[in-house]
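Bump. Still looking for Histidinol-phosphatase, inositol monophosphatase family structure tokens.
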Amino acid sequence: MLNPPNAVVLPATTADIATHATEIARIAADAARGYFRGRLGVEFKADESPVTQADKGVEAVVRQYLADHFPDDGIFGEEQGFEGSDRQNVWIVDPIDGTRSFLSGHPLFGFLLGYLTDGVPRLGVIGMPALDEVLLGMKDQGASLNGKPVSVSATRRLSDAVLFVNEGDKIYRDHPALFDRLMKSGQTRRFAYDCYPHALLAMGHVDAVIDYDLQPYDYLPVTAVVEAAGGIMSDWDGKPLNLNSDGRVISAATPQLHAELLELVNG
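Sorry for the wait, here they are.
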């Protein structure tokens, strides 16, 4: 369905990109569900992160679609790397965001897709195949969930915020003093992994997310969605995220909350 009810109306050129992105999310979700809670062959990368047949299969399906419809664009996928890194327009793909969740049967794994022009995210998709949810965000065009507009909350103070701490075990290992500060922050705190806390922020359910040790295919698609929904996403120094960022990430609903989080992470 190209124009679902209540969809955000986009200019023709960007609408075409959004239509393809939505179709890619559908194809990727169908492929992922075909593997989910089945018997998976699991391998481990050099950093000991797992990769399954599903990761490889979903990325292969997406790459084929992009090769057929956008042959002049570059593709940066988690499993097969960068093709066409010198191209002005690049698609960035994380086929299964949360492989550990996926292989353990946990439904909060995601599919991430981004569209970059000169390295700047113009479009982002956060797909949640097991939940049948697709968040689409486009630069200066707003964000939607299954075609209906969404936006971030108006929370300005950390003391009032629902705060998610992603990759808490790694933060505790590498930054114990910060972990201690995080445990004293927020009105409500939750621990999590992967993309869904950022998606919940874009929907207005969560106010802030601290994340750590991410790769470009983890954060750039999400950045487009969060910012299109009215939020702010940066590295821990407050700088905009790009292909060379160090993987330490803050998402916040408002500038005031973002500023307070920057003070928190930097002690």
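The chain is about 35% helix and 30% strand.

Edit: fixed formatting.
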